[in-house]
Amino acid sequence: MTLVPNVHDAEPIPPAARDAIDALLQSGDLFRYTAPQDAPVALLEAEFAELLGTKYALAVSSCSAALFLSLKALGLPRDARVLIPGFTFAAVPSSVVHAECIPVLCEVGENYRVDMRDFAAKLDNVQAVIISHMRGHTSDMDAIMELCEARDIPVIEDAAHSLGTTWHGRNIGTIGKVGCFSFQSYKMINAGEGGILVSDDADLVARAVIMSGAYEHNWKKHANAPELEQAFARWQNQLPLYNLRISNLSAAVIRPQIPELARRVRDGLANHDYVAERLNSSSYIDVPAPLAPERRAPDSIQFNLVGLSDEDIHTFAAAAEARGVKVQVFGLSQDNARAFWNWQFLPEQVDLPQTRAMLMRACDVRLPVRLTRAELDVITDILLASVGEVVGPVPVYGT
User: Fold this and answer.
1) Do 231 and 206 meet the contact criterion of CB atoms below 8 Å apart?
2) Pick from 91, 96, 140, 150: which is nearest to 119 by CA?
3) 102 and 245 in one domain?
4) How far apart are CA 69 and CA 81, in angstroms?
């Protein structure tokens, strides 16, 4: 009998990281700028830029830090309005507030993607856009980029959940002006904490590097192209330092996982699609399909409960938890950081009825890529049985 898996455990860190960490501990060389060249963080940036197909990458302390630096590097004025989806993590509007800008929220549909009608209606009054590919669900980047480019509005991609996802075969995070990724534990590459931004814009990257904490002449260790060196020369001593650097220890944990990414993406997508097909056999569960140009890289699954009351949904979640599977219903907990009405720090409060209605029915379950087919069946059987506890028996796998 297969036990209910612990979905909070990630894959083990590759052994190569242990060797690199041991060498660092022996040397004590943990600061990214101590080495004259080829520090682990510098190597990580070069390898990540090559992986994504971008000119430049800057590793920092978190994806939130990457978003904040991206906004600051755009040179937006104080109180600039930044359009973001109403369904995202609280760190995204927080980064906008930290950058002394004002978050403007737009509606999100039942498929967790930006509502393009509301997006277009609000676009003329903003100076920048952050598109959160929330839980790895890609919004219509063709339409978004067409609208924003026509207005010369820069687009930042919050790709925290989308490392390995592609759109028309192009890596998510490389479509906008800058892309931001996360290395937090519940991501495809796990360093506990950490983030990275990528861009082809030398001036933007130079500003971000300096503000990340490249004080004095440490920016020279990033100047691997003439256009970057010229940009650094323009901005040295002109910008504040926020000290959002990442350490060599984190880079040593991250780098050996990069060769594992393709396998993790493949396995994660296979796991997701297998569970999605089974869940969609219930008329009370809907797993939204991907958009046509999108090839996802999921390590979790989201689904909507259909035709159930609030009381039914509470009963379903409690039944699943009693059986060993924790289901997060985004809108039901009082303090969920993904429910926009809990962002009481926003300078402007707004209601998004469509997004609110979606969040009250949208469920989230982790599916780490390491899970076996038998473990996936255990999780899926529990979810279907828990629905059956509310609405009556639902057939389980093999019956």
Assistant:
1) yes
2) 140
3) yes
4) 16
Neighbours of 174 (CB within 10 A): 18
Same domain, 88 and 205: yes
Residue type, 178: V
Q: Is the pLDDT of residue 397 over 60?
A: no
Pairing between strand 56-60 and 195-199?
antiparallel
Burial profile 208-217: b = 16 or more Cβ within 10 angstroms, e = fewer:
bbbbbbbeee
For 279, phi then psi, to 5°, come to -65, -35
Q: Mean pLDDT score of the chain, rounded to an integer?
A: 95
Count Cβ atoms within 10 A of the Cβ of residue 78 and give its class: 0-12 exposed, 13-18 middle, 19 or more buried: exposed
What is the model's pTM? 0.95
Query: 220 and 284: one domain?
Result: no
Nearest residue to 346 (alpha-carbon basis) of 103, 158, 78, 67 = 103
Q: How far apart are CA 24 and CA 252, in angstroms?
A: 9
Residue 2 is assigned to a structural domain of this protein: no
82-to-85, 97, 181, 203, 249 alpha-carbon distances in Å: 10, 10, 19, 21, 34
In a domain, 186, yes or no: yes
The pLDDT tens digits of the residues spanning 245-280 come to 999 999 999 999 999 999 999 999 999 999 999 999
200, 235, 259: which is the final residue of a domain?
Answer: 259
Q: What confidence tens digit (pLDDT) does each residue in 374-394 have?
A: 999 999 999 999 999 999 765
Domain extent for 146: 15-259
**Model confidence over 336-366: pLDDT tens digits?**
999 999 999 999 999 999 999 999 999 999 9
The structure tokens listed for 108 are 């999100």
